Amino acid sequence: MAIVVVVGAIGLATRGSDAPAAKATADPVIPTVTAAAVDLATQLGPRDQELVSIGAKGVSIHRAGGRRKVVALTFDDGPAKDTPAILSILKQYDVPATFFVVGQAVKEYPGMVAQEIAQGHQIGVHTWSHPDLTKLPAAKQQQEIVDTQNAIISDSGVASRLFRAPYGAVDPSVIATAEKNKLLSVLWEGDTNDWQRPDVNTIVQRVVSEVTPGSIILMHDGGGDRANTVAALPTIIKELKKQGYGFATVGDLVVSDPPGPSDMSVDGKGVSE
Ligand SMILES: [Zn+2]
Q1: How far is CA 195 from CA 60, 215, 223, 225, in A?
Q2: Residue 70, SS3?
Q3: Count of domains forming the chain
Q4: Catalytic residue among 62, 126, 130, 220
Q5: Which one of 75, 84, 189, 269 has the fewest beta carbons within 10 angstroms of its own beta carbon?
Q6: What is the rounded CA–CA span in Å between residue 24 and residue 32?
Q7: Residue 236 — left, alpha, or beta (φ > 0 → left; ψ -120 to 50 → alpha)?
Q8: How is residue 109 annotated by DSSP?
Q9: pTM (2 d.p.)
Q10: How do beta strands 60-61 and 264-265 pair?
Q11: What helix, strand, coil percent values describe the chain, rounded to 5?
Q12: For this structure, is 220 an active site residue?
């Protein structure tokens, strides 16, 4: 099933005439969303339609509304060598998560995004090469996002509906580019700073002490050695469960507990750290 979709995507991608004429002829260097990807987008389920409509407000969300004692664990910068260990722990504890993937890493670790989706996780676009998008012109922002979306579709047959800017660096232009691609811009509220490789207990304590109902928690499965994140994850899950928290993908969390005005912003302001 997925393979059929992928073949279709590639076939259509090479036929430029299938893309909307105005955009395709404006700049042939910049890939546009393929007709197949648009087809997938039009087959959005209710959850994805809701995400797209929140993203259409020109905002980034930092957290869900906080009405339910549920949080979303998110992992950035993969796929990478530590991703299988993280997937294995999530499976062991039956916890869904969200992976914001880097396009070039998706190519480097074929089949990993497909495995993440097969395990019930959600995928977000984290750009192709992890630049600060606020320093790039809109056309380059578009290319970073579309190339990554295409890599995700090629690997899994599923289009992403979420976007996270590298470094959390967003401005209205970046959010508008995400919106144009039917992606909801997602930042975070709980930051483990695990990319600085603090010790295991520090990572655990940062999550456990900062978490609130509706938190979107930032961790990393790629971008360097994540042994401490892997080691911290089981304790984080067990501690949060002990406190009565449940877990959901960002999409499920946001749709079941919609963010209010104070949970979103147009410029990333309000994100802790
Ligand atoms: Zn990142």
Answers
A1: 22, 19, 8, 9
A2: strand
A3: 1
A4: 220
A5: 269
A6: 7
A7: alpha
A8: S
A9: 0.85
A10: antiparallel
A11: 50, 15, 35
A12: yes
Q: Which tokens go with 60?
A: 């980034």
Pair 34, 6: CB distance under 8 Å: no
CB-CB neighbours of 26 under 10 Å: 11
- Is 255 a domain residue? yes
What residues make up the domain containing 241?
2-259
Task: Quote the tokens at residue 170.
Answer: 């967003």
- The Cα–Cα gap between 34 and 254 comes to 27
* pLDDT band of 12, cuts 50, 70, 90: very low
Q: What is the CATH classification number for the domain harbouring 46?
A: 3.20.20.370
CA of 222 to the centre of ligand 1 (A): 8
Using one digit for the tens of pLDDT, what is the confidence trace for 57-82?
889 999 999 999 999 999 999 999 99
- Residue from 76, 194, 221, 257 carrying the catalytic annotation: 76
Instruction: Report yes or no on 271 lying in a domain.
Output: no
Q: Give me ligand 1 centre to Cα 28, in Å.
A: 28
- Asked whether residue 190 is assigned to any structural domain, the reply reads yes
* Residue 153 CB neighbours (<10 A): 25
CA 176 to ligand 1 centroid distance, Å: 19
State which H helix or E strand residue 246 sits in: strand 246-247
Residue 76 annotated as catalytic: yes
Q: Is residue 6 part of a domain?
A: yes
Of 42-56, 81-95, 160-174, the range with the lowest mean pLDDT is 42-56
